[in-house]
């Protein structure tokens, strides 16, 4: 499940407190990802986050909107975006072919996030854990991103795994 979250005017502190109470997370104030359990918030700009629920059940974004009512505008983005998880020993080499950021540990540590362009495709990239990155892009560009990925990862022995079943 994916939902955009935009704080309402004057509600920053209350929103942070509600997210802390309901999800056990401190909302990031700079481009980064925080997670607890199967829920993560990725800061995408001032007062804006993409909320991510792994295996998010239908209506998850509606529940989040109800929980944050009056504090933030929440919009279901589950059908509008695609998320691709990239991992492996050569993932940084692969990403270096299209991402013009320093992805080394000191410059882009676990939890870091950034808006990037990969093959002229707007994406949000975050480092989930050591050796694991996730790329968020508009669903309408997913096929183009996938083409870039296949072409550029071939030399590294790209393998594709289906998503894990919900609840695992």
Fraction of residues in β-strands: 25-35%
Class by helix and strand content?
A: alpha+beta
User: Main beta sheet: strand number and arrangement?
Assistant: 5 strands, antiparallel
| Biggest β-sheet: strands ordered side by side in the sheet | 2-3-4-1-5
Order of helices and strands: EHEEEHEEHEEEH
Classify the helix fraction into a percent range: 10-25%
Protein architecture, described:
The protein has 168 residues and is of the alpha+beta class. The protein is 23% helix and 34% strand. It is built from four helices and nine strands. It has helices at residues 12-23, 60-67, 91-96, 142-153, and strands spanning 2-7, 33-36, 39-45, 48-53, 72-76, 81-87, 113-118, 121-129, 132-138. The strands form two sheets. It has a five-stranded antiparallel β-sheet with strand order 2-3-4-1-5, covered by helices on one side. Strands 6-9-8-7 form a four-stranded antiparallel β-sheet. The model has no long low-confidence stretch (mean pLDDT 91).
Topology:
Layout: E1 2-7, H1 12-23, E2 33-36, E3 39-45, E4 48-53, H2 60-67, E5 72-76, E6 81-87, H3 91-96, E7 113-118, E8 121-129, E9 132-138, H4 142-153
Entry summary:
The chain has 168 residues and is an alpha+beta fold. It has four helices and nine strands; from the N terminus they run E-H-E-E-E-H-E-E-H-E-E-E-H. Strand 3 (39-45) and strand 4 (48-53) form a beta hairpin.
What are its keywords?
168 residues; alpha+beta; five-stranded antiparallel sheet; four-stranded antiparallel sheet; 23% helix
């Amino acid at each position: 499940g994916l939902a955009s979250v935009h704080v309402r005017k004057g509600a920053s502190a209350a929103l942070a407190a509600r997210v802390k109470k309901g999800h056990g997370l401190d909302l990031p104030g700079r481009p980064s990802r925080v997670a607890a359990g199967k829920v993560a918030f990725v800061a995408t700009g001032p007062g804006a986050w993409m909320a991510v629920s792994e295996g998010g059940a239908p209506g998850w974004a509606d529940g989040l909107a109800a929980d944050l009512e009056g504090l933030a505008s929440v919009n279901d983005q589950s059908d509008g975006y695609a998320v691709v998880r990239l991992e492996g020993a050569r993932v940084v080499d692969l990403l270096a072919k299209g991402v013009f950021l320093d992805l080394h540990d000191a410059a882009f540590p676990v939890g870091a996030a950034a808006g990037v362009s990969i093959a002229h495709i707007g994406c949000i990239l975050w480092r989930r854990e050591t050796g694991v990155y996730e790329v968020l892009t508009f669903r309408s560009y997913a096929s183009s991103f996938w083409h870039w990925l296949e072409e550029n990862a071939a030399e590294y022995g790209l393998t594709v795994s289906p998503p894990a079943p919900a609840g695992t």
